[in-house]
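I hope you will forgive my troubling you with a question about protein structure. The full record is reproduced below for your convenience:

——
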Amino acid sequence: MWWPVSFLLLVLYCWSIQAYNSYPFSGHLSEPVLENGTRWVVLAAGGTGWGNYRHQSNVYHTYQVIRSHGIPDKNIIVMHYDDLAYNKANPTPGIVVNKLNGSDVYKGVPKDFTGNDVNPLNFLAVLRGDPVLARNGKKVVNSGPNDYIYVYFIDHGSDDLIAFPHQYLYGEELNDQLRDMFDKKRYAKMVLNIEACNSGSMFEKLLPQDINVWVTTSANPMESSYACDYDPLRKTYLGDYYSGTWIENIESQDLDNETLIEMYEYIKVRVNISHPQAYGDGQVAKMVVSKFLGNKPKNLLPVPTTTSSSDCHPVKSQDMAIHLAEMNYRYSASDNERRQYLKQLDTIVKGRHLMDKHFERYVQSIIDQLGSSGTTTTTSALLNDRHELTNRKCYRQLVDMFHQQCFNLNQNPYGFSKLKIFVNICEQLVVDNVLDIQFMVNSLKHYCQQNVVNDYTNIE
């Protein structure tokens, strides 16, 4: 039978679309031409562990999309702990998905930085093209004055910091790095995209306006980010509300005809629980997205869509452990499993109450000193208010002391949501009053040495 040519062309087109949407990308697309410069993409997941599955799966999915846009591996640096694909909790060994009933997004992902190499020092070193890393065979952003850099980072966060598996990075350190890269002409334009709780605090009043950098964040300085897509099979959340919407955008739009500010507005309208923020150079925001992330081959461009990720049932990331235990209980197949998840939930709740108690007692121990310095406040105000952070010197000392002497933040992520208390304390002090700051820090150290069980971990 002879089929009409138009029908055969339609079949061929549909087959090509299906092939494009199947992960991982394994084609041989040439890199789109970028006049007088090179694209660099850095994808970093700070999270580790099955409960943080979504952090790495978002990075994997993003890698597959970016790679399908023709950007070669030599210009993509991926940081991920790499403990999901063959995790004992994975019911599909070797496979990682980013949405319910989704395709594998793990196969082919580079292992540029994995395990303990995923840390703030390496992250900053990658951005600045550190020659020592390069000599040791590690991929870095080997960029110059005409190049375009796009950075996507996802993990836990808190006031003025984002987390890595065993450490954290302060906003000042990141912004100082950006300024230094600009001064050394390491890029023409740069975009950062950060998914983390309180991620806006990394840039609010910190990001220089004159260094050709545009930043978008999943949340403002004072709120949580949101996870979504609970999977009963894998017993974890597969994605994040903000990142899922962003990935949906770069998959569904013609990036040659969408500007960065239009992409931001697209996401902002759809992520209506947290409040995505934008910072930096508005001129960069007017550039088309493809300048940074490339684009699909013209014959594979989809019809622009306005779908929404709102059906992913988002939940607050700061309460993830509780949500996860409750959902796993609900979907348990046996009484024995239900008992295990009830016990897990009880442990999480008791651990959180323990940390709450220690914070309250510490605040009570320093309230008189605050009063003697001329400040009028109450224990309740210090525990529950949320001030804007300006006294960063004080705040950083308290956070570091808490992490070292009280509760390891990376092992007790609930602590990230409590760091606002240190902000509240520091904002009661004169910025340059070294004696008062040192008193607060020493008091915290003394309190933790006397009261906190230092090896108590996993207060989720």
Notes: The longest strand covers residues 39-45. The domain at 32-314 is CATH 3.40.50.1460 (Rossmann fold). The chain is about 40% helix and 10% strand. The CA atoms of residues 32 and 263 lie 20 Å apart.
